[in-house]
């Protein structure tokens, strides 16, 4: 509309009479091609017309068509300048890394994004909530009030995105690096040293959130090798790589399944699609049991044929997703992967690990094998300790891990020695909880996929989403 109004004013003001063309024809050829020179000549003529013509001669009048052409060229030039300026400003937004990451990755994520603006995860609408009017929900999540609440939490969002970017870059490298024939300790140590460099490990402010799970085949979760474990990754193994990163206690809990034999493709695909169904179903005001129903329906629609036998992919019913709190990997709410379960609803600004496990076995796990995972009891009050070794070990745990999970390898890395009796004493008194490996029936295969999601007031953000899964 603005450009239309400007054209009308020029046409109305420029009444061209007979004989005026002679003055226009007298303009030099270079001026006609150069709008800037033409504009300068027009200004000179206008000044003469306003009082510097003592003879009272008629001022020169430029043809209206030429004025329109000149205006069009100038407007286009201004538009190009604005586009360039806008593009330049956009490049300063901190959306891309300031420097290029090395291979293998060695540059801390904070140095790649010095402005503190880390990449967003995948943005999705909140899942449909039972009993909530769709239009009401849509209005609620698009309101200015919710946008304001979103902005108030930006510092927390940047911390969790920082941890997510460290996780993404670590797993991108590790997924290509892992090969059959490597020992499980070799795999875990390479992954953990890479993640520590990228996260910029700094005591309890930044680091790994829990030990690297590398559970194989019928073992679904909570296995990491202890010192002296010589287990080797084989071509026919199905291994679940589950590790976490954190910034100021804001935890990314994310896992994937690696396999080398393509015969396991249907199993892995079924579990991955079930995880995506759980993510899609999640959202503010969604009941936890509805997420479980969505996961089970998708997972059980898949089958895998192994050695001539067809197996339905079963969800492992006693493994769940969970809410996540600051320095607390399991914050109180569980997200089932089968029908039933809690009718509790998800709420704004909650973090959830949406994780699903599929199995060709019974679909139920039990404790087995040597324990490696431990974690201080988050709710445990003061407990008097008699053994001096127990007191020393607890001090070491508080200093290095707080309420984050740890393993025996990490205790040794922190300087602990001859700690077996002290660790048992802390577990017996309920100060520390043990988390043994969780296994289905021997001979079966299990798979896992997991993402951390954030239920923002306006949208659902899959924070740990990457190009890989």
Description:
Strands 1, 8, 9, 10, 11, 17 and 18 form a 7-stranded antiparallel beta sheet that branches. It is globular and about 60 Å long. β6 and β7 form a beta hairpin. The chain has helices at residues 2-13, 21-25, 29-33, 35-49, 64-90, 109-112, 134-141, 144-152, 154-177, 184-199, 265-281, 288-299, 388-400, 408-413, 420-428; strands at 122-124, 206-216, 219-221, 238-247, 250-259, 303-306, 309-312, 314-315, 321-324, 334-335, 351-359, 366-367, 373-376, 406-407, 432-435, 438-439, 446-455, 460-462. Helix content is 39%, strand content 19%.
Give a concise summary.
The chain is of the alpha+beta class and 469 residues long.
List the uncertain runs.
1-94
Please bin the fraction of helical residues.
25-40%
- Total strands: 18
What's the average pLDDT? 84
SSE-based structural type = alpha+beta
Distinct helical segment count: 15
Q: Which overall shape is indicated by the principal axes computed on the Cα atoms?
A: globular
Strand content: 15-25%
Kindly list the characteristics that best describe this protein.
7-stranded antiparallel sheet; alpha+beta; 3-stranded antiparallel sheet; 19% strand; 469 residues
């Amino acid at each position: 509309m603005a450009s239309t109004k400007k054209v009308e004013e020029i046409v109305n003001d420029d009444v061209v009479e007979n004989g005026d063309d002679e003055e226009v024809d007298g303009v030099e050829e270079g001026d006609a091609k150069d709008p800037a020179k033409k504009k300068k000549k027009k200004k000179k003529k206008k000044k003469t017309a306003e009082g510097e013509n003592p003879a009272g001669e008629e001022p020169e009048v430029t043809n209206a068509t030429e004025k329109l052409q000149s205006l069009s060229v100038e407007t286009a030039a201004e538009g190009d300048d604005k586009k360039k300026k806008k593009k330049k400003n956009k490049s300063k937004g901190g959306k891309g890394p300031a420097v290029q990451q090395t291979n293998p990755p060695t540059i801390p994520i904070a140095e790649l994004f010095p402005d503190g603006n880390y990449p967003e995860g995948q943005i999705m609408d909140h899942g449909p909530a039972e009993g909530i009017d769709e239009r009401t929900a849509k209005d609620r999540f698009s309101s200015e009030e919710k946008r304001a609440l979103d902005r108030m939490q930006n510092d927390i969002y940047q911390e969790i995105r920082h941890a997510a970017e460290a996780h993404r870059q670590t797993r991108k490298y590790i997924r290509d690096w892992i090969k059959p024939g490597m020992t499980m300790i070799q795999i875990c140590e390479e992954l953990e040293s890479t993640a520590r460099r990228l996260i910029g490990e700094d005591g309890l402010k930044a680091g790994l959130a829990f030990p690297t799970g590398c559970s194989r085949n019928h073992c679904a979760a909570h296995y990491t090798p202890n010192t002296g474990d010589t287990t080797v990754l084989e071509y026919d193994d199905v291994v679940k790589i589950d590790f976490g990163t954190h910034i100021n206690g804001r935890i990314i809990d994310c896992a994937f399944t690696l396999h080398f034999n393509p015969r396991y493709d249907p199993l892995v695909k079924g579990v991955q699609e079930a995880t995506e169904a759980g993510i899609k179903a999640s959202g503010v005001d969604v009941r936890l049991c509805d997420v479980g129903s969505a996961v089970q329906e998708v997972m059980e629609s898949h089958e895998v044929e192994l050695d001539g036998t067809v197996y339905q992919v079963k969800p492992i019913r006693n493994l769940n997703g969970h809410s996540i709190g600051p320095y607390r990997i399991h914050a109180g709410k569980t997200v089932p992967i089968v029908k039933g379960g809690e009718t509790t609803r998800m709420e704004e600004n909650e973090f959830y690990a949406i994780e699903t496990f599929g199995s060709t076995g019974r679909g139920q796990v039990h404790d087995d094998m040597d324990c490696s995972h431990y974690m201080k009891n988050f709710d445990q009050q003061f407990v008097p300790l008699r053994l001096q070794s127990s007191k020393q070990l607890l001090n070491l745990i508080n200093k290095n891990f707080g309420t984050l999970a740890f393993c025996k390898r990490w205790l040794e890395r922190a300087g602990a020695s001859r700690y077996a009796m002290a660790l048992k004493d802390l577990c017996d008194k309920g100060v520390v909880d043990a988390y043994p490996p969780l296994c289905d029936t021997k001979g079966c295969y299990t798979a896992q996929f997991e993402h951390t999601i954030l239920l923002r007031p306006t949208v659902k953000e899959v924070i740990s989403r990457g190009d890989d899964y």
